[in-house]
# Entry
Amino acid sequence: MPEKRWFWATLTLSSITIVSVVLAAWELVENRLFRDADYITLHYLYITRGVASSLLLAFWAAWFVLHQRRKSEADLRRSRDLYRGLLEAFPGAVILYDAELRVLEWNAPAERMYGYPRDEILGARLPILPQPKTAELEDFLRRVQSGVAVLDVETLRQPRSGEPFEVQLSLLPFREGPGPLCFLEVTSDIRERVRWRRQMMEIEKLTSMGKMAAGTAHHLNSPLAALLIRTELIRRHSTGPAFDADLARIEEGLQFCRHFVQRLLDFTRVMPLEKAPQDLATVIESIAGFFQPAILSRQVNLTVDTSEGRGQLVLADRNQLETLLLTLLSNALDAVPAGGEIHLRCRRSPGTVGFTVSDNGSGISAAHLEHVFEPFFTTKEPGKGTGLGLAIARNVVMEHGGSIAIESQPGEGTTAIVDLPLAAVGEAIEKVVP
# Structure
């Protein structure tokens, strides 16, 4: 409003000044050159003066108005470029829509985040709202209409391709002049933040698991120790080698249970390893024999080939190595149906010796495959697994300087590949010379 007043005041004053100057100059010319002119001449002079003044005044007014208009248009273009630049430089997705959810503005980060080009989406109904979030947005709109801004709310938005993902949303009222109320939505992608937060929760769960494992170890170690003592007493009164072999297997199972409970206890803290040179083939054959009853009860075929690992020593903690093997065999057994097959084979490569555990079970999808080593992640039905097995397995392999990988195709089966470094010559001698 002040600018309009200034414009008309400037135009009026400048026009009066021009007319005054023209009239004054014309009077001087008439007094010097046409003092003795007759009435008709003077009459035409007055008409000429009026026409000239009008033309000059019209030319000046037209030039002034055109100049001001060009200046205003230049200012408007600069303001629009500044507004557009700020909008595009803003890191979040900025979306303006009306009460009918028709998109009125859409910046470049919104294009990148949601996959819809600006030219295509302007005027269209907002397409990024997942169906379960419709009622939530309606509630947000009512709150904004009542004068309460919605700030920093975590919700979901649907991109053009892919699954809905987490965003942080702020919704503000926007009104241009006397126009209708619109809604300014600002969102930022917080998938990475949510992922880290979930990992922090998993760490907290893992810490709690460690505390529970301490209590479990305290309560289980005593009965396991008592069972081991009774096994030893029974062996002293045994009368046959077959009976002794059965007792040895029972004792081996009890020892494994004790070490597995202890391993859960140690999982969340660094413990010294009792490494010694181990014949990988011997360890594999021992665990395969221990696992045989579970294999037979499930009517599954287990094939063991240790030819490439025989005589190959690895510097390892025997209990941890057994835990690793049993974990991978248990996962394979859970994955195959009755009549399925599991293959346990040794493998050699320069500087390493390892093994593979393959099954012809249901396999793992690509989306789940990248998460299989995360603590508490499991594809099994609720109550069928804790999600700790492969996390412990990877921890064991890393502590021994090796590598572990999982290869799988849905419907075709899964293969776990473990490689461990060969024991050095000096370490291997310890196997022979105490």
About this structure: The two ends are 100 Å apart (CA to CA). The chain is about 55% helix and 20% strand.
